[in-house]
Structure formats: C-alpha cells, structure tokens
Design goal:
The complex is a heterodimer of chains A (362) and B (232).
Chain A: E1 2-10, E2 13-21, E3 24-29, H1 36-44, E4 51-56, E5 59-63, E6 68-69, E7 77-80, H2 92-97, H3 112-119, H4 134-146, E8 152-156, H5 164-180, E9 184-189, H6 192-198, E10 201-206, E11 209-214, H7 216-220, E12 234-245, E13 250-255, E14 258-263, E15 273-278, E16 282-285, E17 296-305, E18 312-319, E19 324-330, H8 331-337, E20 344-349
Helix pairs in contact in A: 3-4, 4-5
Chain B: H1 6-39, H2 45-57, H3 60-71, H4 76-85, H5 93-118, H6 121-129, H7 134-145, H8 147-163, H9 166-172, H10 182-191, H11 196-228
Helix pairs in contact in B: 1-5, 1-8, 2-5, 3-9, 5-8, 5-9, 6-7, 8-11, 10-11
The chains are: A alpha+beta (362), B mainly alpha (232).
C-alpha cells in the first residue's frame, strides 16, 4: 500500500499528485514530460518534494511537515530502470545478490532460487551483463530489485528500450510478478498496449497532474475525444474463452457482442483477454457485410459522435455488454451513412490489425 | 651488469622507491580529491581545484621552496610531524617522495576525476535503491568502475615522480644514496668532465622504465576495459 500526496515546482514544470495504491500494478500513463518518472524519483527518494507526504506500507518515507526524509538506501524499494543499469563489473549472480547484502537475507523475502525460476534466468547466473540480450538484462534487473526485499516495486518504462520480440518475452514474467507477489507495483509507461495488458489500474497523467484514474478500460477508452487524436485513440475490449484454429492459425475469443478473430495463438489459460483496438482500424457498416474479407463484425448502437470540426469524426459505439468501441471515420462517410445517436451499426475490425504481439491474459 | 656503477644502481633503486612510495601514498588523497571535485558542489571548489593544479603551472623550484618552508625541519608542518611522529622530510628520501607526490598529484587527480565524471551516476543511484549506503556504493560501484582512470592516474604520477627534478633538488638537495634520484644523478654527471657516458646510461634506464610503465598500464587498462566495457 502506498499513500502519496506531493507537490513539486521546477522551472517550467509543476507536479501535484495525490493517490493511494494497493497491491498489483498501478500504471502511471501519459505522454513524456507528464511527470510520471518524477513521481517514481520522489517515491525512491532520488528527489525531494517541495511539499507533501509519501508512505509505503505504513512507513513514512517523506513528510515535509514532519521534516521526515528517509534516505533512498533505507527505503527498501525495488527500482527497475528503463535501461536495466546492471553493474557491468559484476556477474549476473553478483548483480542479483547485491541488494541482499543489506537485508536480513532470504528469510524476510524471496530467495535467489525463487527469483531465478520466476524470471527464467537460472542459466544466466555466471554470465556478465555485457553478454546478455536486452530482454535478459531487464529480467535480471527485475530480479535484482526483487532480491532487495522491497516494500514496493517501481518500474520506469522497463520495456521502452526493447524491441517488440523482447517485450513479448518479458511481459509474461511481469504478469507473474503481479499475480504471485503481494507487492504494490508502480509502473510507468507511455505505451498503451503495455498498460492495457498489464495494469490493474491506470492513472493518466498530463502536465504534472492526474487527469483520470481507474481501471484500464475506463481510463484508456475515454468517452469524449475529437478526431484530432485519431492515431492515439484506442478501445479496450474484454473477451473470454479463446479457442485456437490449428488450420488457419487463428484465435477466436468470445465477446458479448460476438466473436473476435485474432491472428496467432494466445496462451491457453488466457481468460479473460484484453484486446486493444485502434480507432483507425474500425470500419462502420449499416448492415452485416457478406462479401468482405473481414471476419469480425460486432453489432452495437452509436452512443456518441464527436463535434464535426475537421475531416475526421470519432464515432463511439456501445456494444452488447456495455463496452464502448471508438471508430475514426471521415465526416463525409458519417454524413452519407446518416449516422446519428442510437443508430444500429456493425463495427468491422480487420483481424490482422489487432496487435496480437502484446496481447494475452491481462 | 652493463657497466653500471654502485652509484648508478643506488640512484636507480632510489628513484623506483621514491616514485612507488609517492604514487601509492598520494593515491588515496588523489581519489578522494577527484571524487570531491567530480561530485560535490561547494563554495571554494574552484579554489581547491586551482590549488591542486598549482604545481603543474608553477616553476618546480617554487614548489620545492614552498615545501622546504612548510615541511622543512623548522617549517610549521615539518616541525610538527617531526615532534609527533618522528617523520622528517628535509634532506631525506621521504622528502623526495613528498615532492614527487605533490608534483604528480594534479595529473593523478585529473585522470581519476575525468573517469568519475564519465560514469553513469544512475548506476550509483541503482545501488542506493538496492540498500547500499553511500560509502558502500563508492567502494563497490564507483571505485571498481573508475579503476581504468585510477590506473592511468597512477602511471602518470609514477612517471612524473621518476622525472621530477626541480622541486626535489630545491627541497631535499642532491645527496647520493639519500635524495639523488636518476634525474639528479644525470644532472650531476653532466656537470663533471667525462660524465657523459654515465649520463647516457642513466638516460637509457629512464627511458626503459618509463616505457615499461606505459606498456604495463596499457595492458592492464585493456583488460579492465574489457571487463567493464559499457554496453549501451
């Protein structure tokens, strides 16, 4: 459990953030410069706030009124940096055990064996950091943080420096941390797919302020928006029971509004599944099309159409089950179809456009 | 061997001893000063930096004379050290080592400081978040990563100590067997008729020792660099 209420002002930037978070992954999400990493620095004690209080599991780290500031090395936090920052002069084993010199040993936390098997790094112990791949380094960095018996895990864009295959390799491990360790995790990211998949809760930050806070479906698919941000706009659908089609190598998941077809195979135990769909990948039709390559057609009712200012409008469709899917279409198309609130439409989603690489069990 | 006289050998061994002691004794001071200059911001930092660099720009004779004034038997520091721990610098080989250390310190501090400034401070922050107190971070992260610079600084200081002449001869004179290092011996030989052959021999020795030191440092540095090569 972390309680945080802080304010900080620097030239050209001010931060004022107040939230509490429990176990599981709380994602701090937003564009760069929003102050996400600054929050982690404040929690870690690498920065002092001008005013405020930070407490983790009842231990006060920072309290400007009570003039409390606990030095970083006494906070027992696990900090995973974007570029791993393994000690280049130490082996993987020495890196992993670095933090355990300062705690009372495995008795009060997780053991080396547990960490290496949790992260799949047992075979790397005698290697040097320079010889590891980016994904392996990041897993070792996570293990190193865990072995310091932290009260809280801070992850600062841990996947941002990795290519898509390395991300894919690490995400299941982060999911295991989230599910198996009873630990609050603050996870900073600006990648929506990552957040959609990993977070239990999303805090959307902008300009040093919290703009919105809640479960990912709610925060990441806002009810309002104009056509301007069509490339950034996504919807998150929750579906269940994947079935795999060997012949075509497709996965089908069931959604209250219908079946959704995805390329590739999901982990067999992926249930439920969170699917991130970009607004620009959704096509609207008034009737269910037949002679079309599209396999996924979800019926719903238009719940909102953004103010028609530019060439593009954002149409929000309420699907059966209550989830909302946003579709970016041209204003001309919306006019010619005569779209209005309450109209019955079909949302067509190209299966191949769904980013299956980052998607599986939430 | 090779026609070295007793006197030559004395000068060579004394030079090696003076240079080694000067380098080893100034190493902790050099590392501490380099770290402070690289990492700390405090009033008087520029002044401290300047003071350390003074021996590099002042005439060595001036440095030697100042050492004589302060560390001589009657100088304030010299008298104190003599009384409290029986440590005498004037006209002893220890004085030659002190002069060499002072002259080599700016080179040593410079090399180490540059390396520390080039280190990724976030590695130290990472060590801190893992629970390491600052002194431990210094010993387990900063120091090992700065090793190539420490090595380079030591070699520079050692080479400077081998060649130091002006400050040494001013501070501790030119006493065979006590303070007559290779450069002083060469100087002496050039002042007497027929000393050219001796002077040349010692010059060759000087070159060989310097070359060996450089090669050793190069080999070691390469090995260290392989170990801590940055991987971005």
């Amino acid at each position: 459990m972390i309680e945080l209420d802080i304010a900080l002002a620097r030239a050209g930037f001010s931060l004022a953030v107040n939230f509490t978070a429990g176990n599981g992954i709380t994602a701090l999400f937003g564009e760069s410069g929003a102050g996400k990493s600054t929050v982690l620095h404040l929690v870690a004690g690498l920065l002092k706030p001008d005013r405020g209080r930070i407490a983790v599991s009842g231990t006060v780290f920072t309290d400007t009124e009570a003039r409390i500031f606990v030095a970083p090395h006494r906070r027992r936090i696990g900090y995973v940096f974007q570029d791993a920052l393994l000690f280049p002069h130490l082996s993987v084993r020495q890196n992993l055990l670095y933090g355990s010199w300062f705690t009372r040993g495995p008795a009060d936390g997780i053991s080396l064996d547990q960490v290496t098997s949790l992260l799949g790094i047992a075979h790397l112990l005698d290697r040097r950091p320079q010889t590891l791949s980016g994904g392996e380094r990041q897993r070792v960095a996570i293990g190193r943080a865990l072995l310091a018996s932290p009260r809280i895990l801070l992850m600062d864009e841990p996947l941002a420096a990795l290519d898509i295959d390395r991300k894919r390799e690490i995400i299941p491990y982060i999911e295991r941390l989230r599910d198996e360790l009873k630990l609050p995790i603050l996870y900073v990211s600006h990648a929506i797919e990552e957040v959609a998949r990993l977070a239990d809760r999303v805090i959307l930050m902008s300009g040093g302020r919290v703009k919105s806070d809640g479960p990912p479906q709610q925060v990441l698919s806002p009810k309002t928006g104009s056509g301007d941000d069509r490339f950034a706009r996504v919807s998150i659908l929750t579906a269940g029971k994947p079935t795999y089609d060997e012949k075509y190598q497709l996965t089908q998941v069931s959604h209250p509004a219908g079946r959704i077809t995805l390329p590739g195979r999901l982990a067999p135990d992926a249930d439920p599944v969170r699917i991130v769909i970009r607004a620009i990948d959704v096509t609207l039709a008034l009737s269910k099309p037949r002679e079309l390559s599209i396999r996924t057609a979800l019926p719903g009712k238009v719940s909102a159409i953004s103010e028609p200012l530019g060439a593009v409008v954002m149409v929000e469709v309420a699907l059966a089950g209550g989830e909302v899917l946003a579709a970016a279409v041209t204003r001309k198309a919306a006019d010619e179809l005569g779209l209005g609130e309450g109209d019955q439409v079909y949302c067509l989603i190209k299966s191949v456009s769904i980013d299956d690489r980052l998607m599986a069990a939430p | 061997m090779m026609g070295f006289s007793e006197e030559d050998w004395t000068a060579i061994l004394l030079s090696l001893r003076v240079a080694s002691v000067a380098t080893l004794a100034s190493l902790p001071v050099g590392i501490a000063l380099a770290y402070v200059l690289a990492r700390c911001r405090f009033p008087g930092r520029t002044l401290l930096d300047g003071l350390i660099h003074l021996p590099l720009v002042m005439p060595p004779v001036v440095t030697g004379y100042l050492l004589l004034l302060s560390f001589g038997r009657k100088g304030p520091i010299g008298a104190f050290l003599d009384q409290c721990c029986g440590l005498v610098f004037s006209f002893r080989w220890t004085g030659a080592a002190l002069a060499a250390a002072v002259m080599g310190l700016p080179l040593m501090v410079r090399a180490i400081r540059l390396t520390i400034e080039g280190l990724d401070r976030r590695l130290e922050q990472a060590a801190g978040t893992l629970g390491a107190r600052p002194l431990f971070v210094f010993a387990t992260v900063t120091l090992p990563l700065a090793l190539p610079g420490i090595l380079a600084g030591s070699i520079l200081s050692f080479a400077k100590a081998l060649g130091e002449f002006g400050a040494t001869i001013t501070f501790v004179s030119n006493i065979p067997g006590e303070t007559q290092t290779i450069p002083s011996a060469i100087y002496t030989f050039t002042q007497v008729p027929g000393g050219d052959a001796n002077a040349l021999r010692l010059t060759a020795v000087s070159i060989v020792i310097s070359l060996l030191a450089l090669i050793a440092s190069e080999v070691l540095a390469r090995r260290l660099n392989r170990q801590v090569a940055s991987f971005s």
